[in-house]
Amino acid sequence: MSTNEFDENTISFYINEPPINQDIEIFFANYASISPSALRDHLVSVREAAWQRHNYSHLGRWRFLDFSIKQNPIYEEILKQCKSKGATVIDFGCCLGQDIRQLIYDGVPLDRIRGYELDPFFIEQGYELFRDGELMKANKIFTMGDIFDDQFLKTIEAADYLYAGSFLHLFDAETQKDVCRRLSRLAKRAIAGRQTLLKYRESQADTEVLYQHLTQLQERNAHLQDSLSAETRIKLDLFSALGEVKRQLEIANNAIREKERELIAALHSQHQVNNCLFNGHPQTSGHSSPTNQLIDTNNNPTTSSSSVFYSPPTTITPPPLPLQNATSNLDPNAQDFCLPTHSTNNN
């Protein structure tokens, strides 16, 4: 390609004047303390330095002033989760870091935001553009990194959300799939972003050619989505199976804990029963009950047997008093004695 051809192609991506509106003026006045009167020259100065570094279309066409993340359908969800639920967000391929500043401007805490950019020059230009270099460096918001560096990716802690604005279209279709796989390692909930079609020169009159390229881009995106969807389904199936195993394990653990509580309660009840038997029914020593002599209402001896549950070894039940006019065959000098099982007389 000749130099003239290159100039013709790149000039179509370049707009001289920044598209300053009231929203942009308010943002820079509040965030960067830049007055509306000084804003135009400030923007032009930073954009020119960045454009000389690389002729990215989003630099030449002032697309970094769109703050595209706030136009994304899940932006409100990201704000809510980050501000109230402790969620985190990564902006990968952040360039000047305008979307990170939008998150900060809308109240997301600094410790929940990270930005990664291949060229540290653009990180520095972002400090210049938003005049917040000291704050960003103190909180280590931005880091230089390459999406194709596996060792680098291993050092990144996955965030709940990942944003990749104007990033995927920098690669061909096959490489885009690889990039998406790598980005998926860094996101727990969702990946958001925007992908643009390189715009033809305003002088391009052949709309059929433009339509063909647009169709190819749509087909490429559909193929990419299908490929990633298949991989995502497999991951979701695995996560679902893992979740079911965890659920069944928790059910089993709860059942074991319930059985343990029942066993402890049963042992406690048995202990109380034993205490009642001990305190209320002392018996003679031994583990079986002898047949004891009783006296009925007519002063006649009778016999009865009873079961002994527990007999304290030191407790001895005294024998019943002898019956009146009854003779006994007990030796008063004996060392041991036992109660007769029936009355005895000498007749």
Structural class: alpha/beta
How would you characterize the largest beta sheet?
Answer: 5 strands, parallel
Count of distinct strands = 7
The low-pLDDT segments are: 1-11, 198-207, 282-298, 302-312, 334-347
The tally of domains stands at 2
Strand content: 5-15%
* Tally of alpha and pi helices: 11
* Amino-to-carboxy terminus distance: 147 Å
SSE pattern, N- to C-terminal: HHHHHEHEHHEHEHEHEE
Calculate Rg over CA atoms: 45 Å
**What percent of the residues sit in helical stretches (DSSP H or I)?**
40-55%
* CATH architectural designation of the largest domain: 3-Layer(aba) Sandwich
Mean pLDDT: 77
Please render the helix and strand layout as text.
Blueprint: H1 3-11, H2 22-31, H3 36-53, H4 57-60, H5 75-84, E1 89-92, H6 98-105, E2 113-117, H7 120-130, H8 133-138, E3 142-144, H9 150-154, E4 159-165, H10 173-184, E5 187-194, H11 207-280, E6 291-295, E7 301-305
Which key phrases capture this entry?
about 350 residues, alpha/beta, Rossmann fold, 2 domains, disordered N terminus, disordered C terminus
Give a verbal description of the structure.
The protein is an alpha/beta fold and 347 residues long. The protein folds into two domains: 10-199, Rossmann fold, CATH 3.40.50; 203-271. 48% of the residues lie in helices and 11% in strands. The chain has helices at residues 3-11, 22-31, 36-53, 57-60, 75-84, 98-105, 120-130, 133-138, 150-154, 173-184, 207-280; strands spanning 89-92, 113-117, 142-144, 159-165, 187-194, 291-295, 301-305. It has a five-stranded parallel β-sheet. The protein has a two-stranded antiparallel sheet with strand order 6-7. Helix 10 runs parallel beside helix 11 (207-280). The longest helix is centred in the C-terminal third of the chain and has 74 residues, at 207-280. It is elongated. The model is unreliable at 1-11, 198-207, 282-298, 302-312 and 334-347 (pLDDT under 50).
